[in-house]
Amino acid sequence: MIGLTLLVRRELGLALRGGTDAVMAVVFFVLAAVLFPFGVGADPAMLPRIGGGIIWVVALLAAMLSLERMFSADYEDGSLDLLYLSPVGLGTLALAKALSHWMTTGVLLLIAAPILALLYNLPVSALGALFLSMLLGTPILSLVGGIGAALTLGARRGGVLLALLILPLYIPVLIFGAGAIDGAVAGRPIAPQLMVLGGFLLAALALAPWATAAALRQAIE
Amino acid sequence: MQGLTTHKLSCIRGDRAVFAGLDLEVKPGRALLLTGANGSGKSSLMRVLAGLLPAAAGHIEWEGADISEDPDAHRARVAYIGHADPLKPSMTATENLRFWARLYGLDPAIEPALYQFSIEHLADVPTRYFSAGQKRRLNLARLAAGQNSPAGPTLWLLDEPATGLDPGAVSMLANTILAHLSNEGIAIISTHGGRLDELIADHADHFTLQTTGSGVAG
């Protein structure tokens, strides 16, 4: 637990001091979502119907922007070797990295999402679904993204490879995340979608650090 | 007095046998100076000894026990200095050292460690402003921080540690290594010769890795 706290504090400190990744992710999130109405039209009746899906698509693309850097700096400067040799273990490192990624990206997306909800004319009744679906869904993006970041460590064109590996794994999150918002807009119950997202989150918490650690071990060796 | 021994140790990277059948022995209080041409496998051997790379064959013993029986205990006894300096540019020297010391459960006595490598005046400076030599000094100060801690590592694996150091810093490194050896520690140091080898020669044995994958002691 001490190791996890130390690692998260270090990651947050580094993100606060030097990282523009988090800001870039949020700016991308807002800008990309703003672009869609220019392309598909700004019909006030249509926007709430497509808003949930668009917000989720741009959220997962924004979350991906900084994934490539999750382990690469530690890999390049030799820190990863020392982290592996430390008593903390790679599983804890993977969890700490995912948690830090979520705190510096997912939380910011969560904060920015209501602005986009206004832009897409989502009813107030859908704001809760938007918030809850992103609260449950964005940590999954960080946890599953960590696996891809570790698998593509040291690979040439790792960013493209990362997208190809991870985007298919994001599809269930997208379906149930956007489904919860659509359900709220249509006045349907959203509990099933949120429960599925909660299940995904628990599964990702249990499995993703372990899978990421295995991929990191491969990269170190 | 068993220290570290390897038995028929082999390493394969890709399809290439980097080294094979290596038998090494390093007693407590001694250093092993590992020499060899580029590509002879010095760094790979260091990584195998650290547990960062699996051996393709053979095994490593510490105090007579196979390290694979308790890899966590082996990792706890290792201090590893690789080619890169694991420092974060936006963190100060103190913050970098403190992070590693705490992560390894060591007493973060930072000031003496910085003093040992004459970089105490840079304690609060972000390492992005450090020269290559200063970064190396700070990396080596990790050794000193561990040395000042009761639970410090006993097996030092130093992969060309004097790279980028001026003669004064090499002397500081030699003093740090000699202090470690005087505490019955072990140091395995890959080197291309030079002042460091001379300064610790009385406490060191030699081993040369051949590019053919074998090794010669002495």
Polypeptide structure, described:
The complex is a heterodimer of chains A (221) and B (218). With 221 residues, chain A is an all-alpha fold. Chain A has one domain (2-220). Chain A has nine helices and no strands. Chain A has helices at residues 2-18, 21-40, 47-65, 69-76, 79-85, 90-119, 124-151, 158-186, 191-220. In chain A, helix 2 runs parallel beside helix 6 (90-119). Chain A is elongated, with a radius of gyration of 18 Å. In chain A, 49% of the residues are buried. In chain B, strand 4 and strand 5 (65-66) form a beta hairpin. Chain B has helices at residues 42-50, 71-77, 93-103, 110-116, 132-147, 167-182, 195-199, and strands at residues 4-13, 16-26, 31-36, 57-62, 65-66, 78-81, 155-159, 186-190, 204-209, 215-217. Chain B is α/β, with parallel strands linked by helices and 218 residues long. In chain B, helix 3 (93-103) packs parallel to helix 5, helix 4 (110-116) crosses helix 5 (132-147) and helix 5 runs parallel beside helix 6 (167-182). Chain B has seven helices and ten strands. Helices cover 33% and strands 27% of the residues of chain B. Chain B has one domain (4-217): P-loop containing nucleotide triphosphate hydrolases (Rossmann fold, 3-Layer(aba) Sandwich).
